[in-house]
Specification:
By secondary structure, this protein is of the alpha/beta class. 31% of the residues lie in helices and 18% in strands. The mean pLDDT is 97.
Length: 459
Amino acid sequence: MKTLFAKVWDAHVVADLGGGVALLHIDRHLQHDLGGGRSLKTLRERGLKVRNPELTFATADHVIETEPGVKGSRHDWAIKLLDSLRTETRAAGVRLFDVGEDGQGIVHVVAPELGITLPGLTAVCGDSHTCTNGGIGAMGFGIGATEIVHVLATQCLVQSRPRTMRATFDGERRAGVHSKDLILALAGRIGTAGGVGHALEYAGPAIRALSVEERLTLCNLTVELGAKIGMVAPDVFTIDWLRGRRFAPQGKAFDAAAEQWLALASDAGASFDREVVLDASAISPQVTWGTSPEDVIAVDARIPSPIDDAKREALAYMGLEAGAPVAGTKVDRVFIGSCTNSRLPDLRAAAAVVKGRKVARHVRAWVVPGSVATQRAAEAEGLHEVFRAAGFEWRDPGCSLCVGANGELVEREARCVSTSNRNFVGRQGPGARTHLASPVTAAASAIAGAIADPREFLS
């Protein structure tokens, strides 16, 4: 009996090196502007060629500005990174989706969206949130600079086999609860070290009921649990979602592939090294209060008392008081975007909350689509007009305020409700205070001008 993870891992072993270490074949190598050009240049300067340029795909996302009309960056350091990526991908024969082009966007959004990553494939990128691709049943994980060059040169990578964990979500989620809330609740349960050394599989009726986009959100935060790999077994929803994607197989080849993808599910009776079970029906909309994704509570709960010095420092950094309700905490910024929550269903859900309402006068709120395709689809539905009418800024695709690598920052001590994946100290800017939440919670907070329960805004 094999798990989903074991089936994909075993199918990619080129050589068993002993001691749980294997040389794996890498099916897809994803690159972005924050180092893609540098890694390709390193390879070239060593006199080596990209082993399989057709299996490597690059996009501009981290360092580009999302202000409409900029089309890249106005910062010299960012322009150099973008120019390097363009020069080196052209020389190596690597496909680049440049700023504003069809296919460009946040790397973890466009890879599954375009059908570059597929169920059962291995995918790597110099970014820890590559685990996002597990939402369609791929085995994606982030790698370091040396490993990037190794994959470019050999299309293989040496890896230690992790243990396995299954997180089962029983029951049915309630209105206003999104997959972001499920994964934040899991972070609150097991902590940010709970998944260290494991590959996670998400299972149960509440997971099966998620859309593919919601599964991608779920897997995106796997690394915030300490694990490199998170996966959801592909099913008929996955097949329907992938059909017709630009780089996916077509016609009879797709049907044949789909049969193989459906066989990837963990066998009945397959054992895991660790099991965690949550009741999805008992989970409310979640929001973080500290400086780690594990510092999370229900939006209608009170801020907990710190249990150690680290948590006391987190509470002080966030400017919050133990025992106070988190709802009603005044916010300055709202960010709906990032590789976690910038897909079309995320934008639809947020738009449903803000339609016919206005952003609080003291709040600056942004919506940043995750890709050019998402932006165009949202605009075709008129979502951009809904957001603009409410007082949101509708911006161009990119990583934006998630990490601030492009100069877009939250002001010092400003409080931001963000749909991104990390609330670390300074993540969105020096001194910025970040509360992670779902798109509907972020949208409700923008309207209320304070952290708000989205269920009060849903009809």
